[in-house]
Amino acid sequence: MLSTTIHSRFTNLWGCYMRMMMKVSIPVEAGNKGVKEGTLPKTVIGFVELMKPEGCYFTTEGGKRTAFFFFDLRDPTMIPTIAEPFFMNLDASIELSPAMNLEDMKAGIEKAMKHA
Fold first, then answer.
1. For the range 26-33, what are the long-range contacts, defined as Cβ-Cβ under 8 Å and sequence gap of 24 or more?
2. What is the rounded CA–CA span in Å between residue 116 and residue 97?
3. What is the pLDDT of residues 11-26, one digit of tens each?
4. Domain map (residue ranges) of the chain
């Protein structure tokens, strides 16, 4: 049983969640079409409303429209729900990676040092 003093992010069956960074890369032609037809902002806003990311950043990388989203993944079965709209609507490629904030990194280093 988890202690109630543990950070509220520890909520799923296994007692934790995973902060994820999702990189979305959109090819130029599909992105242009998505802007003209409105599917690009609709897809991004749909994701944001569903997952409530703690951060959303937009840039270009390799000549493609690229977004970075940081969010809590409480259930890995949500991955298709998260990714498919980007695949289907924008022909995007997706990369999902676990990510830490500064607080997580400090706690992780502290744990690692105890076991070193």
1. 26/64, 26/65, 26/66, 26/67, 26/86, 26/90, 26/91, 26/92, 27/64, 27/91, 27/92, 28/63, 28/64, 28/65, 30/90, 30/91, 30/92, 31/64, 31/65, 31/90
2. 25
3. 445 556 899 999 999 9
4. 18-101
Q: What share of the chain is helix, strand, coil (3-state, %, to 5)?
A: 45, 30, 30
CATH fourth-level superfamily of 18-101: Dimeric alpha+beta barrel (3.30.70.1060)
First CA to last CA distance, the chain: 27
> Running DSSP on this structure, what letter comes out for residue 10?
-
Q: What is the pTM of this model?
A: 0.83
Q: How would DSSP label each residue in 25-59?
A: EE-HHHHHHHHHHSHHHHHHHHHHHHH--SEEEEE
What's the sign of the alpha-carbon dihedral 79, 82, 85, 91? negative
